[in-house]
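Deliverable D5.2: sample structural annotation.
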Amino acid sequence: MRIEYLADYDALVPQLAQWHFAEWGYLQPQETLDGRTARLRACCGHNEIPTVVVGLLGNSLCGSAMLVAHDMESRPELTPWLAGLYVAPEYRHKGYGSTLIERIVQEAAALKIKTLYLYTPDAEQYYSRLGWSLIERCQYRGANVSVMSRSIAG
């Protein structure tokens, strides 16, 4: 799998937006697919916040990860965040998710970021195995979530 900036592959935005909408739309019930597509397109950067990276096998999109300034309105003091980690079902359990996470960690390190945050409704154990630490468990947008952090070596 090679990792590229979504900004360089605009034709992939609709497919990725559909995946994200299907996976996490319940967390933002007021959002439409068009809204999700526009929001994803607005996050396309290079070596900055926000940035979206995608995993590609040949010409096939297999996943994504994002570096965003904020991902929980209830925790504005925490910044920046790993968000949008998604691997298509047919590509799961092959290490692609952890590879995408490490790319976001590298992006953050290049920006001199010391700590990254994330929240997850269902993958606390997965992230723990990858070096993330639990900060708290709470309710967010009607879901029970784990808020986690990861220190980035300077």
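Annotation notes: The CA atoms of residues 2 and 56 lie 5 Å apart. The beta strands are 2-5, 51-57, 60-68, 81-87, 115-120, 133-140, 143-151.
The annotation will be released with the project's public dataset once the embargo ends.
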